[in-house]
Amino acid sequence: MFVNAFGRPFMLERQDALDQLCINTIRMLAVDAVQKANSGHPGMPMGTAPMAYLLWTCFLRINPANPKWPDRDRFVLSAGHGSMLLYSLLHLTGYDLPLEELKNFRQWDSKTPGHPESYLAPGVETTTGPLGQGFANGVGMAIAERFLAAHFNRPGHTIVDHYTYGIVSDGDLMEGISHEAASLAGHLKLGKLIYLYDDNRISIEGSTDLAFTEDRAARFVAYGWHVQQLDDGNELEAIAGAIRRAREEAGRPSLIVIRTHIGYGSPNKQDTAAAHGEPLGVDEVKLTKENLGWPLEPTFIIPEEALARFRQILQQGKKWEDEWNVRFRSYEKAYPELAEDWKRALSGELPSGWDKDIPAFPVDTKGMATRVASGAVINAIAPNLPTFMGGSADLAPSTKTLINGVDDFKADHYDQRNMHFGVREHAMGGIINGMALHGGVIPYGATFLTFSDYMRPAIRLAAMMSLKVIYVFTHDSIGLGEDGPTHQPIEHLASLRTIPGLTVIRPADANETAEAWRYALEGKSGPIALALTRQNLPTLDRSTYAPADGLSRGAYILSDTGGKRPDVIVIASGSEVHVALEAAEKLRQKGSAVRVVNMASWELFDKQPDAYRNKVLPPEITARIAIETGVPQGWHRYVGDRGEVVGMNRFGASAPYKVLFEKFGFTADHVVKKAVKLVGKAKSRLSKDD
Ligand SMILES: Cc1ncc(C[n+]2csc(CCOP(=O)(O)OP(=O)(O)O)c2C)c(N)n1
Fold first, then answer.
1. 378 plus 303 within the same structural domain
2. C-alpha to C-alpha distances, 638 to 138, 390, 608, nearest whole angstrom
3. Ligand 1: which atom is nearest the Cα of residue 79?
4. pLDDT digits (tens, 9 = 90+) for 147-156
5. Partners of residue 557 on adjacent β-strands
6. Buried/exposed 375-412: b ≥16 CB within 10 Å, e otherwise
7. Above 90 in pLDDT, residue 79?
8. What ranges in 419-547 are assigned the alpha helix state H?
9. pTM score over 0.90
10. Structural domain tally of the chain?
11. 360 Cβ inside 6 Å of ligand 1
C-alpha cells in the first residue's frame, strides 16, 4: 500500500469513481476549451489526464495559494501544445486562474494562450511550446536545486529539497535538445528529476513509426537514467508505484515511459493524429462525452466532488509551506548570515560589494582581448557573488569562463560552480533558462558567437521570458583569423539584435568589458549577450577618451571635435572602435572635425531619451559612417540614407586577422577615403542650400 501525499491510502482498489470523475474533468475541460476556441490540442490532455491527476494530487508539493513558494516542486509541461492540461490543473487545484480564463483559451488578453507562458498564469513555471525546450528547462531547474541545496543546506537544516517533474512527449524526445539535455542530466546523476513520458506514439503526421523507431527506453538507460515502462496510462496505482520508485532513486534521473492513447475516450479519433491538433468537432465531442459518461450540457462542467478533491491540495500546500517556514525560521536562527544570503539570492538582489573587486584595467596600447578581460572580471565577481555560476559548451579555455579556485559542478560536487555543458550549445541555452527560472542563481553560458545559432531557440525563449541569463559569446568576428569562415560570425550580431528583449553588448576594450558585465549583472530586463574578441585590443586611455561607463547608455561620444560642429561622425562597435579612432586621427590631420561614437549596444542606446540620442547623433549631421565586421543590415538606422556602412557582405576567409581586416576594408585608410567623400558630398549639399 502506498500512502499518498495527503496521508490517504492509495491502492488500485481505490481507483474509484471519484478518481475517474477527476480525470474526466481534466479531459472534458480540455475538450470543451479547444472546441470553444476552435483551435488547440485536445488529444494530449485526454491521454495524460490520469498521470497528471495522480502527480498533482498525490505527489507534487506545491502551494497554489503561493505559486512562488521557493521550495515547491517544479512541474514542467514540456509538450506545451497540451496547454489545456496545465490550465485545467491550475484552475482545479486552486491557483488564481478563474474558469473564465479557461473559457477564454487562446483569446486576446487571456492568461491562457495557445502555449503556456511563464509570465501570464500563476503556476506556469516556464514557457513551452517549441518542443524539447521544456525538457532542457527541467534539467536546469534540477541543477539549480542541487546547487542551492548543496550551498545552503546545513546538517539538520534542510531548506532546499524538492523534485522537478515534467510531462514530456514523443516530439520532445525527438528533438535534439532533449538528447543533449538527457545526456547531461544522466551524467550529472540528477536524481530529483522525474519525467513522465506520454508514449502515445502519435504526432502530427500520424504514427511515430514514420520517423521515430529507436528504443527510447534503452536510449535513456544508456544515458544513465532510471527507466520504467508502464503499459497502461490509465492504471493509477502502477503509475503511483513508478513515481514512488523514481523518487527513491536518488542517483539517477528518472524516465517513466507510460503507454497512453491520444484522444482517449473519443470513439473515432482516439489513437489517431486527428486528435492531436484540432478540435474534436461537435459530433465527436458528443460521442466522446457519451462514451465517458459525461453530461453533454452545459460545457465546462466541474463536478463539486471533483473540485473538492483537487482543492484539498490548497490545505495540504499551506501545511507544506508552513512546515517549511518553521524549518526556515530555525535555519535563520542557526545561520543568520546564510539565511540573509538565501533571501537575497531568491529576490535577485546582488549582495553589497559584489563588484568591489572588478579591476580598472591600466592603459595599454598592446592591450588584451575582451574575452580575457571578461575572464578577469568573472573571477573578480565570483568570490563576492556565490550564486553566480555557469560554464561553456566545451570551450572554457577559449571563452575564458572558468572560475579560478572553484571546482567543477558534478555529481556529488553540487556545491561547485564551474559547469561543463559538453558540446551541447542548445541544451546549454535551455538549461540556463531553467536555472534562471528556478531562481536563486545567476547563470551564464559561453561559446563562440558563431555557434549562438545552435542555441538560438533557447535564447529567443529567454528573451520572451525576460530571464536573467548571460551569454558570453567570444571570437566575435573575422578577427578570430585563421579558423576561417565557418567560425567567423558575419550575420550573428544582426540576427541576435532582431530578438526583442535581448540586449547585445560589444565592448571595445577591457574597461568597457568590465562595464558590460556590471550592466549584465545589475540588469533586470532580460538576457544579455556579450560579444567579445579573440584578438587583443588596446586598453584606451580614458583621460584622453570619454570614460568607459558611457557604455551603459549603449552609445557614447568617445572622442569629439573640441566644440566644433562635426564634419563627420564615425560610429563603431567592439574591435572596430579602434579602427574608427585611428581613422579619426588621420581625418583630423586633414582638417576635418570628427566625432567618434562608440556604439556597443543598439538596444541600450535605443532606450535613451531623445535628447541624449540627438546629442550623440545630431540629426543635422548626415555624414556618418558605421564600421562593424558584420552584415550592414540595420546600421542605416544610425547612419541614415546619406551615410555609409563598412561591413561584411560575404563570409570571411581563413588568414591572419590583420590580413583579413586589410582585405575586407577594416582599416583607417579605407574609412578615411569613405569619410572624405561623405564630407565632400555633405559640404556641397550645404553650399547648394546656402
Ligand atoms: C520545435 C518544434 N517543432 C515543431 C513543432 C510543431 N508541433 C507541435 S506538436 C507537434 C507534434 C508533437 O507530437 P507529440 O509530441 O507526440 O504530441 P502529441 O501528438 O502526443 O500531442 C509538432 C511537430 C513544435 N511545437 N516545436
1. no
2. 41, 35, 14
3. 15
4. 999 999 999 9
5. 597
6. bbbbbbbbebbbbbbbbbbbbbebbbbbbeebeebeee
7. yes
8. 425-438, 456-464, 492-497, 510-522
9. yes
10. 3
11. no
Interval between CA 171 and ligand 1 midpoint (Å): 5
pLDDT above 90 (res 490)? yes
Q: What pLDDT sits at residue 15?
A: 60
**Could you report how far apart the first and last alpha carbons of the chain are, in Å?**
95
Identify the pLDDT of residue 684: 85
Q: Are 149 and 110 contained in the same domain?
A: yes
Q: Would the CB of 175 count as within 6 Å of ligand 1?
A: yes
CB neighbour list of residue 631: distance below 8 Å, 6 or more residues apart = 490, 491, 494, 647, 648, 649
Residues of the domain holding 299: 2-320
What is the rounded CA–CA span in Å between residue 482 and residue 94?
60
Q: Is residue 336 part of a domain?
A: no
pLDDT at 537 over 50: yes
Cα 204 to averaged position of ligand 1 atoms, centre (Å) = 7
Confidence band, pLDDT 50/70/90 cuts, at residue 282: very high
Radius of gyration of the chain (CA): 28
Same domain, 500 and 609: no
Atom of ligand 1 nearest to the CA of 201: 16
Same domain for 315 and 369, yes or no, is: no
For residue 174, report the distance from its CA to the centre of ligand 1, in Å: 9
Q: H or E segment at 307?
A: helix 304-334
What value, to the nearest 5°, has the Cα angle with vertex 256 and ends 251 and 258? 175
Q: Which residues contact 129 (CB under 8 A, 6 or more apart)?
A: 80, 81, 83, 114, 115, 116
CA atoms of 92 and 53, how far apart (whole Å): 10
**Cis peptide leading into residue 298 (ω within 30°):** yes
Reported as a single tens digit per residue, the pLDDT across 167-222 is 999 999 999 999 999 999 999 999 999 999 999 999 999 999 999 999 999 999 99
In a domain, 223, yes or no: yes
Give the Cα separation of 233 and 23 in Å (integer): 12
Ligand 1 within 6 A of CB of 216: no
CB 449 within 8 A of CB 374: no
474 contacts 532 by C-beta, under 8 angstroms? yes
Please identify every residue annotated as catalytic. Answer: 425
CA distance 291 to 271: 15
Is 356 among the domain residues?
A: no
Taking the C-alpha atoms of residue 51 and residue 171, their distance in angstroms, rounded to an integer, is 18
pLDDT in tens, 598-622: 999 999 999 999 999 999 999 999 9
Burial 225-250 (b: 16+ CB within 10 A, else e): bbbbebeebbbbbbbbbbbbebeebe
85 within ligand 1 shell (Cβ under 6 A): no
Average pLDDT, the chain: 96
Q: How far apart are CA 232 and CA 178, in angstroms?
A: 24
- 18-54 per-position pLDDT tens digit: 999 999 999 999 999 999 999 999 999 999 999 999 9
CB-CB contact of 221 with 227 (8 Å)? yes
Contact criterion met (CB below 8 Å) for 410 and 188? yes
The per-residue pLDDT for range 587-600, each reduced to its tens digit, is 999 999 999 999 99
**H or E, element range at 216:** helix 216-223
Binding site membership of 41 for ligand 1 (Cβ less than 6 Å): yes
Q: Are 14 and 20 in contact (CB under 8 A)?
A: no
Distance CA 198, CA 279 (A): 20
**Do 435 and 582 lie in a common domain?**
no
